[in-house]
């Protein structure tokens, strides 16, 4: 779904991102415990929906907005959705690589990609530190410097 006003970034409740990171961490732990490429492929679909359609349209975003958010007070602040959407695309990349690894028999690749994705998701879930968001900001700053330098 496009931004409401072209050129105006969508703003999201950062607590929803942490909620999604908790669920993602649990799924990735289960993937590592079972070696399930199918479950990791399902997580890749969740990442894809968040990256392409927007965070509130991903399954975890939907659960947050319907089940959790109504029980909380309003957020103290909202954040730009672009960095976390980029983080979803990074997660999609790792999940797709990992699923391909598990499903093709390259279990080591599935484990490595799942573990990397779990590390990033756990950092967000436990500490509110979004690695993919930081990568987005670094990319934007680098493009800006290269464009003006």
Topology (elements, then pairings):
Elements: E1 11-12, H1 14-34, H2 37-52, H3 59-68, E2 79-80, H4 82-104, H5 107-127, H6 131-148
Antiparallel strand pairs: 1-2
Helix pairs in contact: 1-2, 1-3, 1-5, 2-4, 4-5, 4-6
Structure description:
This protein has 149 residues and is mainly α. The protein contains 6 helices and 2 strands, in the order βαααβααα. Helix 1 packs across helix 3 (59-68), helix 1 (14-34) packs antiparallel against helix 5 (107-127) and helix 2 (37-52) runs antiparallel to helix 4 (82-104). The longest helix has 23 residues, at 82-104. The relative contact order is 0.17.
Instruction: Please state the average pLDDT score.
Output: 94
Number of β-strand runs: 2
- The helix/strand series, from N terminus to C terminus, equals EHHHEHHH
Distance between the termini: 35 Å
Helix content: over 70%
Profile the largest sheet.
2 strands, antiparallel
Q: Looking across the biggest beta sheet, what order are the strands in?
A: 1-2
Low-confidence stretches: none
Radius of gyration: 16 Å
What amount of the residues lies in strands?
under 5%
Structural class: mainly alpha
Coarse shape: globular
What are the defining features of this structure?
6 helices, 73% helix
Could you write a compact summary of the structure shown?
This protein is an all-alpha fold and 149 residues long.
């Amino acid at each position: 779904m496009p931004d409401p006003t072209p050129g105006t970034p969508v703003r999201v409740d950062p607590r929803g991102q942490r909620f999604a990171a908790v669920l993602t961490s649990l799924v990735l732990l289960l993937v590592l415990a079972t070696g399930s490429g199918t479950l990791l492929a399902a997580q890749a679909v969740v990442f894809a929906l968040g990256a392409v359609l927007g965070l509130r349209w991903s399954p975890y975003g939907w659960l947050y907005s319907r089940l959790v958010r109504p029980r909380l007070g309003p957020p103290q602040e909202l954040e730009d959705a672009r960095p976390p959407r980029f983080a979803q695309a990074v997660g999609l990349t790792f999940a797709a690589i990992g699923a391909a690894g598990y499903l093709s028999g390259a279990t080591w690749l599935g484990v490595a990609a799942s573990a990397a994705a779990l590390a990033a998701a756990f950092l967000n879930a436990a500490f509110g530190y979004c690695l993919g968001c930081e990568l987005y900001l670094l990319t934007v700053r680098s493009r800006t410097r290269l464009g003006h330098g």
